[in-house]
Design brief:
Strand content: 25-35%
Distance between the termini: 22 Å
Strand order of the largest sheet: 2-1-3-4-5-6-7-8
Order of helices and strands: HEHEHEEHEEEE
Radius of gyration: 14 Å
Structural class: alpha+beta
Largest sheet: 8 strands, mixed
Helix content: 25-40%
Length: 156
């Protein structure tokens, strides 16, 4: 169940309005996930609601996909994705993806939300406050830095 907060909607709308004029809004999001994972499906719904066109591939093991994407082992979560050449791992909020695609830092290969923090998109738990977590940017050499910080689905 996705919980939508007024502030989150306003922030999301602001991010979309900051999206460069003429930029493609229905970017293809390739997602690889486990067949038994409900939170992965909830994250895909979050991304679709943010304007991405998602194509899901269900696999029993994601190791080969993560090797292909060059995702650092210490940043793994429950699903992998790619959009416009940007690698995604785990429950990365659409707002962070939009920002990375708009800014397009040349040294970033991808974004990750390691583990599965409560309140991240797809990990909402009714009655539970969202945890504070970092969206980590990583480069091709596996180095990483904090890209954005969130509390639940909202920037912190």
């Amino acid at each position: 169940m996705m919980i939508i907060h007024r502030r989150g909607v306003l922030i999301g709308l602001g991010a979309l309005s900051a999206w460069p004029a003429g930029a493609q809004t229905n970017l293809l999001l390739e997602v690889w996930r486990d067949p038994n994972c409900g939170c992965c499906s909830a994250w895909v719904t979050h991304m679709r609601e943010a304007g991405f066109t998602a194509r899901e591939t269900v696999l029993p093991a994601l190791g080969p996909v993560r090797q292909m994407l060059r995702t650092p082992a210490d940043l793994l979560s429950c699903h992998a994705a790619r959009v416009a050449g940007l690698v995604l791992e785990g429950h990365v909020p659409a707002l962070a993806v939009r920002r990375a695609l708009a800014d397009r830092p040349s040294n970033i290969l991808g974004l990750a939300v390691p583990a599965m923090p409560i309140g991240a998109p797809g990990m909402e738990v009714p009655g539970q406050p969202g945890e504070v977590y970092d969206v980590i940017a990583f480069d091709a050499a596996g180095r990483h830095t904090t890209f954005m910080r969130f509390r639940g689905g909202e920037p912190a």
